[in-house]
Design brief:
By secondary structure, the protein is α/β, with parallel strands linked by helices. Helices cover 39% and strands 15% of the residues. It has 2 domains: 4-76, no CATH class; 86-281, Vaccinia Virus protein VP39 (Rossmann fold, 3-Layer(aba) Sandwich), CATH 3.40.50.150. The model is unreliable at 1-12 (pLDDT under 50). Bound molecules: S-adenosylmethionine (SAM). S-adenosylmethionine binds at residues 84, 89-90, 128-130, 133-134, 149-151, 154, 170, 172-173, 190-192, 195.
């Protein structure tokens, strides 16, 4: 998946698709009975997605997309870009996702608690907000909250789920104009810069500074080189990279790093050092 360059990213690999399809046929009910359980190992029971909740048409399309990718897709999709979906913005689901979201929101709360003071901030936003998994926490700290995201399907979902927040579809997160969307007291970005080329990342940082000339910027990104891709220059393909805190400090100047905290995810996640939360303040 790391090098995939398809318009639609629906499934991780053929094996998973076959597994979940079989799972679908074997278990027509939403859960298994005690006789059926014995046919599955613990690994299968606890790590495969529950395909019984997925419609057959979806699974069938997943397989067609996989076949297309393996055959003519690699030529037909040459000029396309990597697309983020609900399954990839956060790379876990089910119980693990539930725990991850709780921990991440708690971390953000603990970092923002001090800057709020008695009153709510006037405005806050998240850049590259996906479907608003973390944007919603900002509502506890600011009166008006916005989210900026490139993928239209994620913006539409976020807007339906969180009507009190204004979500904008933007073609690039490096050219959000404060004259059109307003200025913010706080700008947050999480797990976005780590997927960008250096050049694009620096232009996003410059945009964030323009959006909050006297406020705060919270950056939550990968800072240790674990599970990174070789590709760091082809922006239309999947990139995963780490930049040390010192580099972000340098690029964020004259904004000063005022707080730092380790990014913590659920205990079962393979990467025990997924990143650092860095809170910057305008000069
Ligand atoms: C790993 S996801 C993180 C989403 C969200 N911040 C979260 O933590 O749930 C990265 C997000 O950044 C968005 N993104 C990446 N590059 C972008 C770009 N150039 N313009 C707008 N959004 C972008 C993706 O669409 C995706 O939703």
């Amino acid at each position: 998946m790391l090098n995939s360059n398809c318009q639609v990213v629906l499934a991780e690999n053929v094996v998973a698709i076959v597994d979940i399809t079989m799972n679908f046929f074997i278990t027509k009910e939403r859960s298994m009975n005690s006789n059926e359980l014995k046919y599955f190992s613990e690994h299968e029971l606890f790590s495969l997605p529950d395909a019984t909740a997925l419609p057959f048409t979806y699974l069938f399309k997943c397989m067609l997309v996989k076949i297309r990718r393996k055959l003519w897709g690699r030529f037909a999709d040459k000029n396309t870009r990597f697309v983020w979906t609900i399954n990839t913005v956060s790379d876990v689901d089910g119980p693990a996702a539930n725990v991850r979201n709780y921990i991440e929101r708690q971390t953000i709360r603990s970092l923002l608690r001090d800057i709020k003071g008695q009153d709510l901030l006037r405005s806050a936003c998240e850049i590259g907000c996906g479907y608003g998994r973390l944007t919603m926490v900002l509502k506890e700290f600011a009166k008006n909250v916005s989210g900026f995201e490139r993928e239209k399907h994620l913006v539409d979902l976020a807007q339906r789920l969180l009507p009190d927040i204004k979500f904008y579809q933007v073609d690039g997160i490096n050219n959000i104009d404060p004259n059109k969307v307003g200025f913010f007291d706080l700008v947050m970005v999480c797990a976005v810069l780590q997927h960008l080329t250096d050049e694009y990342c620096r232009s996003v940082i410059s945009t964030m500074k323009k959006l909050t000339p006297d406020g705060y910027i919270l950056i939550i990104e990968k800072t240790e080189a674990i599970s990174v891709t070789e590709n760091v220059t082809k922006g239309n393909e999947f990139i995963s990279r780490a930049r040390p805190v010192e580099l972000y400090e340098e690029w964020m100047k004259p904004y000063a790093l005022i707080k730092k905290k380790e990014r913590v995810l659920e205990n079962t996640y393979f990467n025990k050092h997924p990143g650092t939360c860095m809170l910057f303040k305008a000069p």
